[in-house]
Amino acid sequence: MLYCARYGHTENKLSDDAPKLEPWPALPFADWRDSAATLHMWTQIIGKIRMTPRGMTTGTISHGEHFSRQ
After folding, report:
1. Which pairing describes strands 9-11 and 2-4: parallel, antiparallel, or unpaired?
2. What global pTM score does this model have?
3. pLDDT, tens digit (0-9, with 9 covering 90-100), for 16-61
């Protein structure tokens, strides 16, 4: 029960007509392994790209022990 100091009444927030929360369905990794790899690759690409006044650019990209400017 919650008490409202402003209006002086109580309210039952856990009423029976409140929507019931359903558990999330199972999502075995083996079923979406390929999609996970693709999603990971694309989030790395998107995270590397920046918009500047001159257009799209990237920062320094490492390759082994060497760095290159793209």
Report:
1. antiparallel
2. 0.44
3. 666 778 888 999 999 999 999 999 999 888 888 877 788 777 777 6
Residue 55, token pair as written in the block? 């257009």
Number of other residues whose CB lies within 10 A of the CB of residue 48? 13
DSSP notation for the chain: -EEETTTTEEE-SS-TTSPPPPPPPP--HHHHHHHHHHHHHHHHHHHHEEEETTEEEE-EEEETTEEEE-
- Identify which of 45, 43, 41, 37 has the alpha carbon closest to the alpha carbon of residue 61: 45
The closest alpha carbon to 15, from 28, 31, 2, belongs to: 2
- Distance, in Å, from the CA atom of 6 to the CA atom of 44, rounded to the nearest integer, reads 51
